[in-house]
Amino acid sequence: MTTEAYGATKRPEDFRFLIRLARQQGERLGRAYLDFGEPLPLRKRLEELRALQKTSESGASTEIERIALDVEHRINRATPVTPTAVVSLALLGADRSLSISEVLATVRPLASYIAARNWTVAGAADLTNRSTIRWTLHQLVASGVVSVYDAGTEPVWGIGAEQHLVAAFYRNAAIHIVVDRAIAETALLAAVEDAEASVEGLVQPTAVRDEALRLRELLKFEFLFSARAQFEKELTDEVRLIGRVDDTRKAAHAADVRGLLEKADVLLAHLVLRPFLDAYHIVADRLAAYDDESFDEDAFLAECLEVGKQWELQRRIASAESRSMELFKTALRLARHRELVDGVDGPDIARRRREFADEIATAVRRVNAIAELARTC
């Protein structure tokens, strides 16, 4: 999986592949949990959607898509958080080896956030317990995803060589519970920056909402978001969890809102959004520099892989996870959606591609600023 994501040719899934796969199943790796989401009354939901369709101006039928989203949201809500996902999130976010105390320093406030959101933890595991985290680290070492160095004063654990994408697979099992929080943090910082540059110095609630919606639009091919009205409600809930806010409908001084971020128990934007935004940044940067009349997707993606490796070596991206073919393809899908790739003529295409790159670069800068806040506060 890792080599293919970095551009290698996919190996055929033939009989030899099946034999290798069967042999890999010989060892027990964790537990399987079965749970059921909230039931979906299909007949009632279809009637509601058809009634909405009659009042819609678009005329396009979206019943199947809306039902699928409803089902997926219920699956997400029923999916418990696993210790493996949380530990992978901590290690990927640091992208360096950590002692168990350093892992716990990230996991414990995250566990408090998970409890505040009323998300269940698989097996009722205590994510703040040192033994639970140590056992999880040992399991990840046994699976080859994490490596441990124990010849010094204390053991330290880090993502193994070429294992970032495998660790990301584990992390993504829980990423749906933290993406709204990550967007809320980034939107607050964006609104603070705008307010600090204004005469009034006030953060308007609409500015936070609009920035969150822009990020939602930017990442809509990566994450399964709620409908807009529900998303805005959840955004308000997330802001209240970040810090004490008397009334989210009123403007607040920029210094007070920045203080919310500085005093937050946990900041997640860099842990959640940075791998995706870094990958998008590579694609947008290369697209802005692209001047051929015809677009060769294979050649373009190959260049993105090469530049991604360069940026990794220069530490312009935080992790090897971001130089992934899958992430590049999704970023290119977004660019196509914005009509920045195929069959595009006109003198403004170069300008619009630069604006796209600038938009993502700004989001990356803000997420990196939140990473610095998390490190120093």
UniProtKB/TrEMBL annotation:
Name the UniProt record assigns to this protein: GPAT/DHAPAT C-terminal domain-containing protein
Example of a GO MF term: O-acyltransferase activity
Any one Gene Ontology BP term: lipid metabolic process
InterPro entries in the cross-refs: GPAT/DHAPAT (IPR022284), GPAT/DHAPAT_C (IPR045520)
GO cellular component terms given for this protein: plasma membrane
GPAT/DHAPAT C-terminal domain span: 1-342
Coiled coil: none
